[in-house]
Amino acid sequence: xHAYKRIxxxxxxxxxxxxxxxxxxxxxxxxxxxxxxxxxxxxxxxKYRHPERPLRINVMAQSRSRMWEVTIRDNGTGIEPNAxxxxxxxxxxxxxxxxxxxxxxxxxxxxxxxTLHGGTIECLPMQDAGSAFKLTFxxxxxxxxxxxxxx
Length: 151
Description:
Helix 2 runs antiparallel to helix 3. A hairpin with a 2-residue loop joins strand 3 and strand 4. By secondary structure, the chain is of the alpha+beta class. The strands form 2 sheets. The chain has a 5-stranded mixed β-sheet, with helices on one face. The protein has a two-stranded antiparallel sheet with strand order 2-7. Helices cover 27% and strands 24% of the residues. It has 3 helices and 7 strands. The termini are close together.
């Protein structure tokens, strides 16, 4: 995706690895706005990476009832379960105490963009370290009607 290309150099510099599905996912929507959603999630993974291990981001996707279900998972510091709803509110932040810069606008904007595209975004509970976000998008049946959001 275009979002990946924006942060490719930074991922190389920190020794991060990102994996994508081996297939294209075509969706109907505003390519720039959807790229902003992915870019924000990737940037958050970089910002909240764990200091003692290399960052790994895994983008997984599956088709369900004419929707794409996309999960973006990282092995960073994670989000506390009681903060998972607050993070989608304007100025809501899960990690105020870490001293990590941020305005609390990014995930609220992601939710707004995804909702405008008829989809959903949620933070999934994690058993171990890291964060996972599940997004849903309406599928576009033909390449000529949509853009690929995959790498």
